[in-house]
Design goal:
The complex is a heterodimer of chains A (about 120) and B (about 120). Chain A is built from no helices and 12 strands. Chain A is mostly beta strands and about 120 residues long. In chain A, strands 2, 5, 6, 10, 11 and 12 form a 6-stranded mixed β-sheet that branches. In chain A, strands 3-9-8-7 form a 4-stranded antiparallel β-sheet, with no helix packed on it. In chain A, a hairpin with an 8-residue loop joins strand 10 and strand 11. In chain B, strands 2, 4, 5, 6, 9, 10 and 11 form a 7-stranded mixed β-sheet that branches. Chain B is built from no helices and 11 strands. Chain B is mainly beta and about 120 residues long. The chains are: A mainly beta (about 120), B mainly beta (about 120).
């Protein structure tokens, strides 16, 4: 079984300040972990993914995430928020083997960026 | 690469009619596609897994006779909402897994917003 918990349903930051979106997971297998972004009425865009290589993963648009097995966390960060970062973010877990590679989504975090 | 399209992007229909939504992988082959449903301000919920050439696998609580899935080729899956009712109004998103790519990564379509009057 696997699950994902996004600890904050809403995060508000000022433009130019750091972003931290928190994600904790549980998985019976060595998981693959993803962060997706969704802008209003749009599909999902992959920001980055962890698949058992380097624990610090760099993604698009300046985002990065660190896989911490001891803390079962995969928090998403960005040094400096931009207005265009305002969107919904989903942390997603998939088992590396078995279970048909099903994705389990977190509840989402809405990021708001103030000017 | 790895582009998934959906058609239509939005549809409004009357209660009792059926609506078909198409999901296409444009530049890769996908033996497996997934259909998700997303209610406003909520996360995505997997409805069913669509396998090319075989029957779809539905998640618990999803009516297979209401949400008909056909995966007739390696690049096309369709979801038909039969006898639609207002409670079926939602954002439907498909994803596809590249036959030749990373097993764990799914590529998502832009979604279809269905409004049933």
């Amino acid at each position: 079984a696997q699950s994902v918990t996004q600890l904050d349903s809403h995060v508000s930051v000022s433009e130019g300040t750091p972003v931290l979106l928190r994600c904790n997971y549980s998985s019976s297998y060595s998981p693959s972990l993803f962060w997706y972004v969704q802008h209003p009425n749009k599909g999902l865009q992959l920001l980055l993914k962890y698949t058992s290589a380097a624990t610090l993963v760099k993604g698009i648009n300046g985002f990065e995430a660190e896989f911490k097995k001891s803390e079962t966390s995969f928090h998403l960060t960005k040094p400096s928020a931009h207005m265009s970062d305002a969107a919904e973010y989903f942390c997603v877990v998939s088992p590396s083997i078995g279970a048909g590679n099903m994705l389990t989504f977190g509840g989402g975090t809405r990021l708001m960026v103030k000017p | 690469g790895a582009v998934v399209s959906q058609h239509p992007s939005w549809v409004i229909c009357k209660s009792g009619t059926s609506v078909k939504i198409e999901c296409r992988s444009l530049d890769f082959q996908a033996t497996t596609m997934f259909w998700y449903r997303q209610f406003p301000k909520q996360s995505l919920m997997l409805m069913a897994t669509s396998n090319e050439g075989s029957k779809a696998t539905y998640e618990q609580g999803v009516e297979k006779d209401k949400f008909l899935i056909n995966h007739a080729s390696l690049t096309l899956s369709t979801l038909t909402v039969t006898s639609a009712h207002p409670e079926d109004s939602s954002f439907y998103i498909c994803s596809a897994r590249d036959l030749a790519g990373d097993d764990n990564e799914q590529f998502f379509g832009p979604g279809t917003r269905l409004t049933v009057l």
